[in-house]
Amino acid sequence: MNSPDDAVICSAKGCRAPALWVLAWNNPKLHTPDRRKTWLACDEHREHLSNFLGLRGFLKDVVSLEEWESSPKA
What we know:
By secondary structure, this protein is an alpha+beta fold. Helices cover about 25% and strands about 20% of the residues.
């Protein structure tokens, strides 16, 4: 059973809501093309964080946390 300390929370500054989404990204100036960094998002911050990464050309994929955790790359 997961403890409260194991809770996966949103990456938005100051947000303590449970994360439901994974935003996979990379900065092509710093990372190889296959490297994926991740931010986590609640429903409320998913669009904002996606836009932030997308405007910079960093966003590669947005998937549900459940899907991300069940995929072989997780």
